[in-house]
């Protein structure tokens, strides 16, 4: 054992006990992955990318808070939530990859910005860096998890067995994420003047990105029975957000919509300026050292 | 030679080593097909990093017990729930100072109810048995555990949270 290399000395040349490192296998190994009859596989792959990219990109954003959150417990909470979402992303990207003949790593690390299909809410920079704030991150988590929870509760009935199983599995995780965000929203909104002001400012920051969540994309419209029409989620999600904001003494921001490019947004591969920086960081290692594992 | 089921049932969970995979309820099925052992397991959480370790540990144990060909399959559906942790597993958790989860019953269709305050579950302190305990954080050292503190004996402890 050499102490020149800290990792080597920790591993002792035997890495089989490292749960968090090497040897991640295919996220859907052994799962029954037959495609339902009559489903357009190319559309199914696009839909899996949409839902997978939402989780992957938001997971990356949440991970940025690790060691930067207001308290240790919150570092752990946000990292746990990020891990759940990363797990959902792995299964969804693997499903898409079966059609596209690319594995989850190729899809996560080797696609360019225009090929990502996540909503803008997942990618915007809410901190911990300059201009961001914990209140903004909680506002985003509240909106995102309320929306995704409503979506997954319907996706459980998808005609695609993999989507239905991913949704049934992810549903309980998302319920924890939403409750966590809701409880923080109440704690901050109903806390001090300072915490109230910052929580309200967080809501104002993310609200322009809410509308996109409920816009039906052509792929979703074509995949009736497999995909969930996000427009159908609006009243349920509005009701949840209303309940949280009212308990927190916060005001629902006016409905404004973030600018789009020729009517296109994240689902079409058109992203905000923040996305390029995010991908540069997320993809850097894999692109510098192709095939790297850790 | 012990049966493949006995070998697989005795493999320990990498994150909760006081439990076997059978105690945890992630071991779905062990069968032998043409001299090949097929083990089906289920992940606890979507992002559970231990799932690959479980597969590797199962393979290692079965090969060590003389089964040359081992295949580990993953089953996502029906989704794992803490209700599948066995009665024996619950006793082992409590003995190790980890509060076991309460029973939650089958999941229902339709919207998931919102909890604006942490649910006031009665979780007994694994040290002194007091029910006067408080949740410190819903998220603990691993995805499956929350952190709590006992107000009677002041000890912090982990709780396998209901899912
Ligand atoms: Zn106690």
Short précis:
Chain A has about 290 residues and is mostly helical. Helices cover about 55% and strands about 0% of the residues of chain A. In chain B, about 20% of the residues lie in helices and about 25% in strands.
User: CATH superfamily of chain A, called what?
Assistant: Ferritin, core subunit, four-helix bundle
- Major sheet details of chain A: none
Query: What general form of chain A does the structure show?
Result: globular
From the alpha carbons, calculate the radius of gyration of chain A and give it in angstroms. Answer: 20 Å
Q: Assess the beta-strand content of chain B as a share of residues.
A: 15-25%
Summed over residues and divided by their number, the pLDDT of chain B gives a mean of: 90
The average pLDDT value of chain A, as a whole number, equals 89
Topology pattern of chain A, helix = H, strand = E: HHHHHHHHHHH
GO cellular component, one term (chain A): cytosol
Protein name (chain A): Phenylacetate-CoA oxygenase
GO biological process, one term (chain A): phenylacetate catabolic process
InterPro entries (chain A): Aromatic_CoA_ox/epox (IPR052703), Ferritin-like (IPR012347), Ferritin-like_SF (IPR009078), PaaA_PaaC (IPR007814), PaaC (IPR011882)
Outline the structure in words.
The complex is a heterodimer of chains A (294) and B (163). Chain A is an all-alpha fold and 294 residues long. Chain A has a single domain, classed as Ferritin, CATH 1.20.1260.10. Helices cover 57% and strands 0% of the residues of chain A. Chain A is built from eleven helices and no strands. In chain A, α2 runs antiparallel to α3, α6 packs across α8 and α7 runs antiparallel to α8. The longest helix of chain A is centred in the first third of the chain and has 29 residues. Chain B is of the alpha/beta class and 163 residues long. Among the domains of chain B are: 71 residues, GMP Synthetase, Chain A, domain 3; 43 residues, no CATH class. Helix content of chain B is 21%, strand content 23%. Chain B has four helices and seven strands, in the order ααββαβαββββ. Chain B has a four-stranded mixed β-sheet with strand order 4-7-6-5. In chain B, β2, α3 and β3 form a beta-alpha-beta unit. Chains A and B meet through α3, α6, α7 and α10 of A and α3 and β3 of B. The site of zinc ion has 8 residues of chain B, from loops.
């Amino acid at each position: 054992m050499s102490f020149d290399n800290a990792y080597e000395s920790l591993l002792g040349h035997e890495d089989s006990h490292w749960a968090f490192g090497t040897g991640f296998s295919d996220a859907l190994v052994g799962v029954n992955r037959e495609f339902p009859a009559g489903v357009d596989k190319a559309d199914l792959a696009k839909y899996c990318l949409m839902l997978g990219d939402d989780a992957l990109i938001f997971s990356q954003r949440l991970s940025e808070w690790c060691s930067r959150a207001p308290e240790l417990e919150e570092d752990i909470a946000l990292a746990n939530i990020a891990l759940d979402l990363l797990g959902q992303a792995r299964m969804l990207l693997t499903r898409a990859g079966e059609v596209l003949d690319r594995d989850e790593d190729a899809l996560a690390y080797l696609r360019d910005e225009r090929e990502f299909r996540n909503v803008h809410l997942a990618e915007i920079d809410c901190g911990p860096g300059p201009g961001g704030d914990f209140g903004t991150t909680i506002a985003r988590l509240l909106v995102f998890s309320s929306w995704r929870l409503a979506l997954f509760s319907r996706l459980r009935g998808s005609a695609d067995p993999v989507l239905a199983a991913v949704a049934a599995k992810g549903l309980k995780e998302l319920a924890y994420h939403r409750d966590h965000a809701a409880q923080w929203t109440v704690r901050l909104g109903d806390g001090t003047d300072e915490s109230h002001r910052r929580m309200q400012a967080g809501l104002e920051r993310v609200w322009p990105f809410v509308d996109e969540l409920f816009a039906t994309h052509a792929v979703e419209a074509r995949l009736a029975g497999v995909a969930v029409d996000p427009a159908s989620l609006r009243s349920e999600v509005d009701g949840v957000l209303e309940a949280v904001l009212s308990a927190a003494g916060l005001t629902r921001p006016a409905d404004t919509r973030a600018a789009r490019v020729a009517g296109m947004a994240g689902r079409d591969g058109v992203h905000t300026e923040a996305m390029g920086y995010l991908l540069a960081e997320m993809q850097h290692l894999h692109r510098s050292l192709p095939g790297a594992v850790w | 030679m012990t049966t493949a089921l006995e070998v697989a049932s005795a493999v320990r969970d990498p994150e909760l080593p006081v439990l076997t995979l059978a105690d945890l309820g992630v071991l779905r099925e062990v069968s032998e097909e043409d001299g090949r052992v097929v083990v089906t397991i289920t992940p606890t959480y979507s992002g559970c990093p231990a799932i690959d370790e479980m597969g590797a540990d199962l393979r290692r144990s079965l090969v060590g017990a003389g089964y040359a060909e081992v295949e580990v399959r993953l089953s996502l559906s029906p989704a794992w729930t803490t209700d599948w942790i066995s009665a024996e597993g619950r006793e082992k958790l409590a003995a190790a100072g980890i509060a076991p989860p309460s029973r939650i019953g089958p999941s229902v269709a339709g919207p998931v109810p919102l909890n604006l305050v942490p649910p006031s579950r009665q979780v007994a302190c694994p040290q002194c048995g007091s029910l006067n305990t408080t949740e410190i954080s819903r998220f603990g050292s691993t995805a499956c555990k929350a952190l709590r503190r006992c107000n009677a004996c002041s000890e912090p402890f982990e709780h396998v949270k209901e899912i």
